[in-house]
Design goal:
By secondary structure, the protein is mainly alpha-helical. The chain has one domain: Orthogonal Bundle (ABC transporter involved in vitamin B12 uptake, BtuC), CATH 1.10.3470. It has 14 helices and 2 strands; from the N terminus they run ααααβαβααααααααα. Strands 1-2 form a two-stranded antiparallel ribbon. Its main location: membrane. It holds the Pfam family BPD_transp_2. InterPro entries: ABC_BtuC-like (IPR037294), ABC_transp_permease (IPR001851), BCAA_transport_permease (IPR052157). Keywords: Amino-acid transport, Cell inner membrane, Cell membrane, Membrane, Transmembrane, Transmembrane helix, Transport.
């Protein structure tokens, strides 16, 4: 029975939140890896693009809530999300036309693109701060829990329960649908095959009659949509903090590089490894070990490797380790 209590505790505070967090990172990492696979540069503005799409979703959500529109028990943000996706796509296409296209025509070095993306990042961040401000914003409504901790305790007959939030289930379901669609698109559609061919060999793709600007446009549309969805799901699961999306860029890049740059499957795998690493390393194992130890015994300290304030340090350590030990990532290659 004590072992079951320990497992329930571990599932409640590690497995369930890490799975939802990993799904959110996966969507973000997919956007980063698509941009790198097609345009060959690290887009540091991706985090703020996530924040921008989420901000528009929040503003539309507030408008719908004030109008009395809801889809209870589901969050109203799901109704507003398509507008947020369109806004993120518009922002991505505008910045590409006004900024990145110039450097693309000049065939600039990837480092130049990366530096330019930092400038775009600050621009988008400034717009966000002006529109919605720097404070935390809450926009989640509807049913909070699908399974409550007290209900699961009674159902399982244990001292520990497993709480599953509606936002966590929505995150996993939406991520599964989006990822399935993305892989179908890349493998089965003409546009997806053109993107893969362009990523594999740009010159050969041009000789085959593939329109590079069309490929680039589709890439930005997909990456921006993934960013808006990932940011909104992250905000629903936790809260919207304009500054957090700059920080979350570190685990996203760590997941991308760990899985293999330009590899969608690797991005997903890397995202879940990073998520479970962060959550596990910052979890306090005191109560967990108390269940596994002798009766009435518990460790003196929290048995926590790192404070939650330093969870992003885990991503940094993973990033450095991968670059030193296996720069190509888990899955070799730089193509889609």
């Amino acid at each position: 029975m004590e072992i079951l209590n320990a497992l329930a505790l571990f599932a409640n505070f590690v497995v369930v939140p890490a799975t939802a967090y990993g799904a959110q990172l996966a969507l973000g990492a997919l956007g980063v890896t698509l941009i790198f696979g097609i345009l060959r540069f690290a887009n540091f503005a991706h985090g703020e693009l996530m924040s921008f799409g989420t901000m528009i979703t929040i503003l539309v959500t507030w408008f719908l809530q004030n109008m009395g529109v809801s889809i209870a028990p589901f969050p109203t943000a799901l109704l507003a999300l398509p507008i947020g996706v369109l806004a993120a796509i518009s922002m991505a296409l505008v910045t590409d036309r006004m900024v990145f296209r110039f450097y693309r025509k000049q065939r600039s070095n990837p480092i130049v693109f990366a530096i330019v993306s930092v400038g775009v990042m600050f621009l988008i961040a400034g717009i966000i701060r002006i529109v919605i401000g720097p404070a935390d914003q809450s926009f989640a409504d509807g049913q909070r829990f699908i399974i409550g901790a007290f209900d699961s305790r009674r159902a399982l007959g244990l001292d520990e329960g497993i709480a599953i939030k509606q936002s966590q289930v929505i995150t996993v379901v939406v991520t599964a649908i989006v990822v399935a669609w993305l892989f179908w698109f890349l493998q089965k559609t003409r546009s997806g095959k053109a993107m893969r061919a362009y990523s594999d060999d740009e010159d050969l793709a041009l000789l085959s009659g593939i329109n590079p600007e069309r490929v680039v446009t589709i890439c930005w549309v997909i990456a921006a949509a993934l960013a808006a969805i990932a940011g909104t799901l992250y905000g629903l699961d936790k809260t919207y903090k304009p500054f957090i999306f700059l920080q979350i860029l570190l685990p996203i890049f760590a997941a991308t590089i760990l899985g293999g740059i330009g590899q969608p499957v690797g991005a997903i795998l890397g995202a879940f490894i990073v998520a479970f690493s962060e959550v596990t390393v910052t979890y306090a194992f005191k109560k967990f070990l108390a269940y596994l130890g002798p009766t009435d015994w518990a460790p003196e300290g929290l048995v926590q490797l790192l404070s939650t304030d330093y969870k992003f340090a885990v991503s940094f350590i993973i990033l450095v380790a991968v670059l030193l030990i296996r720069p190509t990532g888990i899955i070799r290659g730089k193509v889609i």
